[in-house]
Amino acid sequence: CRPSIVPILYHILSLLFVDLDVFLCLPQPPTITLQSPKDYIVDPRENIVIQCEAKGKPHPRFSWTRNGTHFDIDQEPKVTMRHNSGTLVVDISGEKAENYEGVFQCTARNEHGTALSHNIAIRQSRSPLWSKEKIDPIVVQEGVSLVLQCQPPVGLPPPVIFWMDNNFQRLPQNSRVSQALNGDLYFSNVRKEDTRSDYICYARFPHTQTIQQKQPITVKVLNRKCVRACLRVRIGASDDRKPTFLIPSGASSTQLVLRGQVLELECIAEGLPTPQVSWTKVGGDLPTKRTSFLHHQKTMSIVNVSESDAGEYRCSAKNQLGSAHHNIRVTVRAAPYWISGPPRNLVLAPRETGVLTCRASGTPKPSIAWSMNGIPVENSIDDDPSRRVEDDSVIFTEVQPGASAVYQCNVSNEYGYLLANAFVNVLSEPPRVLTQAEKVYQVIRHHRALMDCASFGSPIPKITWFKDGSSSTLDGEPYVIHDNGTLELHVAQALYSGKYTCVARNSLGTYENHVYLEVKDPTRIMRQPEYKVVQRGMSAVFECKVTHDPSLLPTMTWLKDNDELPDDERFIVDSDTLTIAEVTEGDEGVYTCIMNTTLDHDSASAELSVVGTYPDPRPPPARPGGSVYIFLLQQLHEYFIPSRQLTFSASGEPLKFLIQYEDSLHHRGHWHNLTEAAGTRTTANLPLSPYAHYTFRVLALNTVGLSRPSAPSRMYKTEAASPDENPTGVHGSGTEHNNLVISWKPLKGIQANGPMLKYKVMWRLKDVDTDWTSVVVANVSKFVVSGTPTFSPYELKVQALNKHGSGPEPAVARGHSGEDLPVAAPDNTQVLVLNSTLVEVHWDPVSLKSIRGHLRGYKVYYWRELSLHKHNPRHVEKQILDFSGNHTHGMVPGLKPSSHYSLNVRVYNGKGEGPPSPSQMFETPEGVPGIPSFLTVSDPGLDSLTLEWGPPKDQNGRLTGYTLTYQPVNSSNEPGPAKELSLGPNETNVTLPHLKYSTRYKFYLSAKTAKGAGPAIPQEAVTIMDEGKPGGGEEQEEDEKVVWQKEYVNDSQGVVLRGLKEGLVYRVRVVAEGLDDQSPHRSEEIVVTVPAMTSRQVDIATQGWFIGLMCAIALLILILLIICFIQRNKGGKYPVKEKEDAHTDPEFQPMKDDDCTFGEYSDSEDQKPLKGSRTPSSGRTVKRGDSDDSLVDYSEGGGDGQFNEDGSFIGQYSGKSIGRDTVQGEGPESSEAPSPITTAMNSLNSFV
């Protein structure tokens, strides 16, 4: 290669991505650029192509090994190697592809070294047929589980499994029927509709795109009432049952997954009703962004697995009868992977020092082996004293000429390997500047300028810049020299134009290159096109006056609605105008002129509106006023300009007048309030604006309200004048880092004071420019200045113009050009740990120049790297705290105790965030643990309970144990004495003996670390009597933790619930169940309270207090009998006897003396009726319904009333006597209340 053409070749070949060292004719060891994958499965129907491409100088030679031995291509007539390539092509016509299976490796070598490809395992794809088999029909009972096995043939790669019917329609799958990962079809429970004869498993082999079919499977589902003794019936419980897992088996299992792969966990459960499956991670959260659920929640998939995904996962299956759980312990291993990329090529000059680094990781930790030119370093014949191998690095010290070689780094563990080539090229080359000589750089003023100085040399040259032959180097403001030698000017000015010299130096020589910088004036549209309102058929002319640098060639382009102009001869484009002849409504739109040069452009737009002929401006005839009879004398008396005097009169007694105007020139059809006049006046002086078409009307106002408006006056046109005010709200900001958007609030039409309203926009760099740059724009509200330096202060002015002159001198506003992202990060970031959940962060502020925008504040990014204890998973989700304003410190709360955290700080402006500060790691101390994850009570007995719990989700340190506090609670919710029990950190259950029977207890369990106890989780439970559970199962509501006991009643209308506990309140309801896909009907709930027993049920006859009470009662009765006997001997009479003796009634019943009791009055046949009752002549017994005044009617018991000693009726509060004859005409009645179950059944029957 000739050095004189090197710069030109560099410029051309760099665009083609050709390697620099190659076209510079420099020696280079081989580098592998293309190779086939490690696991290469080939199609047996196509030729085998094994790729191996490499580069180097001179071009490398290629050879191959197969299964570790030399592969002689000349001896293989079917194998050819492509020209100038190492790629092999195997022609398999008439051959079997399997004859070429094996492990191939490519070698590329030249005189400077040898590079190796990785091992390429060639395997032929296989899609074997299904073995012939006879599948007997499967007969199952309705409700049992079922598995249809697919068992596809082993293929390469494994096939894709799916189930279809004879019509090639996919079989429907749902939460009850689903396909497992191994291809089998699982039924959680079968139904009658599952009966069919075409369950067909298909296997699709993706590499050969072939599909194989299994023999159809017939399934017959028998009704529950079918006799189970039928042949080949799979006997199973078809009643409702709680879930159990079909796969996986047992209470727990393990699974291994490699980093970066997809973790698929599967749980399929059977049960009736169909169980629902859910997933959780024990002691952690699922990575929501990488987690998905397939096959109706039965499969959980986590993509791109990392070490933080290791841990224990729990799948839960649940239906109304209970739940089942299975824990899967996931272990994450990692094949070797690069930490910071593979080792990089090294170019050294003689006696220089360098390092090749092969930094990789894996689980378990991989081993690293170095080779040179394909030979292990330890076996190398060339024992180079300048080379030293230290684990993952090869260190070169004062390398010698001729030490060029290719080094192979092989990183491996039991799960895979990585092989990388990196060469060391020892070169002695004087510097060369590769940038084209005498190149001219053109840039627009105020834009950024970049001048290249691409160089090559060994040792690496040092770059310096000079201007216009000066001996002083360009270093510091306004120049910046980048690491690649490029010279940058942030803001180009005319004075920076000139000749620049780039000098490249190393120990072998010096090379100079000259370039030129030309700073051009920007392109500006000085007169923008204006908004046009043109009558149909007239012509419209848009002007676009432009200034530009005279050395640049401009090109004017016009657009309509951001598209090309219509191909119509009516559109005439001149150098600075666009004329549209005979406009039509279709010509309406936005027209844009764009002036382009080779370096920049500018554009401006205006809108065209097409209207018909103007309406007649004469006002309509006058009409009567409103209820106040107001009218207008259409007289205008001119006293002075621009005011006018309006004369009017009105009837009635108005309080005041309201004068309104319409400006038909600027706002036709809208009336505006102008001024008010007292009700006693008939004239008003009106302040008017220039260049308006006024029409006036007057309204009168009295205590009732406003009158109707008068008829409008004739139109009066004021003369135009120059603007008397400028736009307000002038503001400057940028939408991009290199522009300035100047915006303002435009004047309203009536404020223009004349036609052709425009704005003169002026700007200059504050404290830099002395002259104002200005441009005149149309009646718009903003103007964009392009090519401004990033976030620089500007002074701004906007002045109103019209055809008659300019407005007053505008006020100066200030603004900034567009912001860019900050370029610096906060320095000296420090973290002060205050406690286990709070740290304080300090940082040094970023300089305003580096912020490159308005300082909005600082953001602290922090994330939890890992927990100090294995029970807590690793989290990498970043959290952000925003500190607005110029803060230099802040508090970071809410941290997890006992954890490693990383933190960095970033400054941000209106554009966005800057780079992060170096990450600071800190460690939070231990804290008190969180609440235990759960606390449940199981196995309640007469005097014992078993508690089970889970460790806290947030352990916040190393657990030292648990504290269990429990105490009894009486029926008044008054707690009894508390007991405390200390438990070990690894315990998850405890049985409490010697408790009181039939007693409610409260439990409080808290976890402890060295920092103390955390919050306690409460629970309550009641010890029970030693009796069985009522009913036949459990049903748990989904919306609350209530367990319902079930008692099947079939078609009966009532049921007796046994085994209820004394002192408890029960909720009772009746549920009618239909088929599985029908929702059950539930009756209203009834609350039943079972009376409490204060003690055990014992034989009361053996109790001392009962014996004493009976003795006292016997003694009392004995005393009463003695008193009665004494009274009888005295012959005394009771008062009631004396009263009855006064009446001589033969039907009177005396008191019975033989038993010392009063006589009873009854309606039975062996007793007489009471006095005063009417007795039938037939002598039959008086019935309840036969007498109107019998005292029986006043007895609640109906016939068992008695009198006491003073003659009062003592039976009025007594209940009905058991065993008495029932009253005629009334059926038998029960004194017991109806059963709640019966009431609920009757209610449900009426509902159904």
TrEMBL record:
The molecule here is called Neuronal cell adhesion molecule
Q: Which domain of life is it from?
A: Eukaryota
Cited PANTHER family = NEURONAL CELL ADHESION MOLECULE, PROTEIN SIDEKICK
SMART domains assigned to the protein according to its UniProt record, in alphabetical order: FN3, IG, IGc2
Q: Quote the biased-composition stretches of kind Polar residues, using this chain's numbering.
A: 1232-1248
Looking up InterPro entries in the UniProt record yields: FN3_dom, FN3_sf, Ig-like_dom, Ig-like_dom_sf, Ig-like_fold, Ig_I-set, Ig_sub, Ig_sub2
**Mind listing the GO molecular function terms for this protein?**
cell-cell adhesion mediator activity
What is stated as this protein's family in its record? Belongs to the immunoglobulin superfamily. L1/neurofascin/NgCAM family.
Signal peptide positions are 1-27
Instruction: One Pfam family, please name it.
Output: Bravo_FIGEY
Q: Which UniProt keywords apply?
A: Cell adhesion, Disulfide bond, Immunoglobulin domain, Membrane, Repeat, Signal, Transmembrane, Transmembrane helix
Provide the Ig-like domain boundaries. 30-117, 128-218, 243-331, 336-425, 431-518, 522-609
Outline the extent of the Fibronectin type-III domain.
620-721, 723-820, 825-927, 931-1027
Q: Name one GO cellular component term.
A: axon
**Residues passing through the membrane, by range:** 1105-1126
> Per UniProt, what is the membrane topology?
Single-pass type I membrane protein
Location(s), subcellular: Membrane
Q: Alphabetically, which GO biological process terms does the record hold?
A: axon guidance; brain development
Q: Where is this region: Disordered?
A: 714-735, 1136-1248
Compositional bias of kind Basic and acidic residues: 1136-1155
What main location does UniProt list? membrane
